[in-house]
Design goal:
The complex is a heterodimer. By secondary structure, chain A is an all-alpha fold. Chain A has nine helices and no strands. In chain A, helix 6 runs antiparallel to helix 8. Chain B is built from eight helices and twelve strands. Chain B has a three-stranded mixed sheet with strand order 10-1-11. Chain B has a three-stranded antiparallel sheet with strand order 5-2-12. Chain B has a two-stranded antiparallel sheet with strand order 3-4. The termini of chain B are far apart. Classes of the chains: A mainly alpha, B alpha+beta.
Chain lengths: 284, 208
């Protein structure tokens, strides 16, 4: 239960950050051909999904606490603890993206204010991913204390964000303001992230194999103890890549993108479960 | 004088009786499953063919482990609520009223020192029996040891008496947290460190 609530927290908040970035990128890219207020209205529904994802993630994280009603104490050691900073940044990101979604829904004409809020949200998302990565890079857990941890978290955000945005923008009648090929480009980005993620996974396992005893034990847990999870991670990731490639080529990719999103979520879920399974500390 | 309290463990003298473990539980009223001091049972070796004969080189030893009130206490570094704090004399104490029960310190500590109490919904840990020290008495684990395998004192004085060793299998590399600990290792600890042994009671002493 404990790890599952943290799996939900990390996946949902990273998905939220990635979706925020992807939707902002689409709007910036489309701004040359369409007015900003029209773009805000066209993506308002998708923007509203970001605070929902972040709120669900934060709510899930409370489930792992022994005393959940004392959660407010978590951001009180900001000077030393990356976990404390992560909690504060998650709350700030939730506030920023909720404000952005509210502006997109009810005040799309507030261009300057929205621009400032978007910029703040994007930076807070990046800071949240960094704090999250640092919180897991414990020097006593060699499987986590590596560059592959931030790479994996960034990969999750970029993959789920781009596929999620592509799926949202291709669902139903396409808004005139959003370019017709935007979902295709997002699917192409997702395909590139999926390929990069396989490289990161390979680098991680090689690192574990060549590391100290705790690393090798982590690798044994993943490859031998949870080989069905590893297989599910690889198969779902591979199929999601195929679906993304198909979405790039198809004129009406809605159904394929939905499938790609489900497969990408499955791959990320098993990947994250494997990440937590690799928590083997040095010593006792 | 370093001004830092430290534990001394003579692994060669330890018989594995666990009187230290029991005294600690008794002194602090610890529930089942919570062990601030644990005794690791290390066992290794086996039968080897020597020409036409078979010889054995089995060995076993014990190592009593508690919180080492480290110089770089990772529990203090990672605790999000500031519930873990270190005194000037090196003792790391937990303020239970500030603890959320997130168990992050449990993930981080390579000695498995912070222990989760499910009934309280929060962490607990060794206090070095600070109240006993103030009363001029030794920590309960040290007082209970029938083999005099455990001792305590100033870190530098213990090092001057017993040497600077702070690591012995199954403990982690000392540079991770700089433990306030001095060890006289068992003669077979080097073999265990080379991977010729394992923990015989891992389910008892390893933190989750």
């Amino acid at each position: 239960m404990r790890d599952r609530s943290l799996v939900a927290f990390t996946l949902l908040t990273q998905w939220g950050v990635g979706l925020f970035w992807a939707l902002l990128a689409v709007r910036l890219w489309s701004a040359r051909t369409a007015g900003w207020p029209a773009l805000e209205s066209a993506t308002a529904g998708a923007q509203a999904a970001v605070p929902v994802l972040a709120a669900l993630g934060i709510a899930a994280s409370l489930l792992h606490l022994g005393r959940p009603f004392r959660f407010w104490r978590a951001p009180t050691n900001l000077g030393r603890s990356w976990l404390s900073r992560e909690v504060l940044l998650a709350a700030l990101f939730l506030g920023a993206c909720a404000f952005c979604a509210a502006l997109a829904l009810w005040a799309p004409g507030e261009v300057f204010l929205k621009g400032v809020a978007d910029g703040a949200g994007a930076l807070l998302g990046a800071a949240l991913l960094r704090a999250m990565s640092r919180a897991y890079r414990l020097r006593t857990v060699p499987a986590w204390d590596a560059w592959t941890t931030p790479a994996a978290f960034l990969g999750t955000a970029l993959l789920l964000g781009s596929v999620g945005a592509a799926t949202a923008l291709s669902a139903g009648p396409r808004p005139v303001a959003v370019p017709e090929n935007a979902p295709g480009y997002l699917a192409l980005a997702a395909l590139a992230v999926l390929l990069a993620e396989q490289m990161v996974l390979l680098a991680w396992t090689r690192r574990l194999a060549g590391g100290p005893k705790a690393s090798r034990e982590a690798l044994r847990r993943i490859v031998v103890g949870r080989k069905s999870w590893l297989l599910a991670r690889l198969v779902a990731g591979g199929l999601s890549a195929v679906a993304c490639a198909a979405a790039v080529l198809l004129i009406r990719p809605e159904e394929v993108l939905r499938l790609a999103l489900v497969l990408a979520l499955t791959a990320e879920l098993f990947g994250r479960l494997l990440f937590y399974e690799a928590r083997v500390r040095e010593g006792l | 004088m370093s001004g830092r309290w430290a534990f001394y463990v003579d692994s060669a003298a330890c018989s594995g009786c666990k009187a230290c473990q029991v005294a600690c539980k008794d002194m602090n009223g610890l529930p089942a499953g919570v062990l601030w001091r644990r005794v690791a049972e290390v066992a290794g070796g086996g039968w080897r063919r020597a020409g036409a004969a078979w010889e054995q080189d089995v060995f076993a030893y014990h190592l009593s482990v508690a919180c080492n009130h480290c110089e770089r206490p990772i529990c203090v570094e990672v605790c999000p609520s500031g519930a873990m704090a270190q005194r000037e004399d090196g003792i790391v104490l937990l303020d239970g009223s500030r603890c959320l029960g997130c168990r992050y310190c449990e993930w981080a500590c390579p000695y498995g020192a912070p222990q989760y109490d499910g009934a309280l919904g929060r962490m607990t840990k060794c206090t070095f029996c600070a109240q006993e020290l103030e009363a001029g008495r030794p920590p309960a684990c040290v007082a209970a040891c029938p083999m005099r395998a455990l001792d305590f004192g100033d870190q530098q004085e213990l090092e001057a008496r017993h040497g600077p060793l702070r690591q012995s299998y199954p403990l982690p590399r000392p540079e991770l947290t700089e433990p306030s600990l001095v060890i006289s290792p068992h003669r077979d600890a080097a073999r265990a460190g080379r991977g010729e042994a394992g923990l015989a009671n891992g389910e008892e002493v390893k933190a989750p």
